[in-house]
């Protein structure tokens, strides 16, 4: 199984830490994980530890259009079983790239998940999970 994780946040926080741990665990189970992140973000370097491939996108101005076309090329070439979008800001760009890649034909699953629901602010938890076998060194 091949999964593409998409998370274009420019920083590193709980959501990125969760994706790091998830990628680590799924990779250990033999699932191929690739990652798309913002160009120059901490994720671009850190996800290299656990993902098979890391693609970076620039999203501002004309780069937004170029990165949509680039993402479409990646989707078409790699033929992922699951494309997991992890931020609401990214879903439209990914959906357009998905349509361009497969021209309306169904190919794999396109899903969207959130670390925090976009409509509600959640209290920040300072607790950290302990005793996990696979943890980020960051």
SSE blueprint and pairings:
Blueprint: E1 2-7, H1 14-28, E2 32-38, H2 42-46, E3 53-57, H3 62-78, E4 82-85, H4 91-102, E5 109-112
Helix pairs in contact: 3-4
Task: Write up what this structure looks like.
- The longest helix has 17 residues, at 62-78.
- This protein starts with a strand and ends in a 26-residue tail after the last strand.
- The protein has helices at 14-28, 42-46, 62-78, 91-102, and strands at residues 2-7, 32-38, 53-57, 82-85, 109-112.
- The relative contact order is 0.20.
- The model is unreliable at 121-138 (pLDDT under 50).
- It has four helices and five strands.
- A five-stranded parallel beta sheet has the order 3-2-1-4-5, sandwiched between helices.
- It is globular, with a radius of gyration of 15 Å.
- Helix 3 crosses helix 4.
- The chain is of the alpha/beta class and 138 residues long.
- Helix 1 links the parallel strand 1 (2-7) and strand 2 (32-38).
Give a brief rundown of this model.
36% of the residues lie in helices and 19% in strands.
Across the major sheet, the strand order is 3-2-1-4-5
Helix content: 25-40%
Shape: globular
What class do helices, strands and sheet pairing give? alpha/beta
| Through-space gap between termini | 27 Å
The total of helices stands at 4
Average of pLDDT: 77
Annotation, overall tally of beta strands: 5
**Whole-angstrom Rg:** 15 Å
Strand content: 15-25%
- The succession of helices and strands, N to C, reads EHEHEHEHE
Low confidence ranges: 121-138
Please summarize the sheet with the most strands.
Answer: 5 strands, parallel
């Amino acid at each position: 199984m091949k999964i593409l994780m998409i998370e274009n946040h420019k920083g590193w926080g709980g959501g990125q830490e969760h994706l790091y741990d998830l990628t680590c665990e799924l990779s250990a189970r033999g699932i191929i994980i690739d990652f798309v992140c913002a160009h120059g973000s901490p994720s671009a370097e850190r996800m290299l530890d656990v993902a098979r491939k890391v693609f970076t996108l620039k999203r501002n101005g004309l780069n937004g259009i170029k990165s949509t076309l680039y993402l479409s090329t990646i989707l078409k070439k790699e033929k992922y079983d699951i494309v997991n979008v992890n931020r609401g800001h990214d879903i439209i760009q990914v959906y357009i790239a998905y349509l361009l890649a497969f021209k309306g034909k169904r190919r794999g699953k396109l899903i969207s998940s959130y670390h925090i629901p976009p409509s509600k602010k959640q209290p920040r938890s300072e607790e950290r999970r302990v005793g996990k076998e696979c943890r980020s060194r960051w």
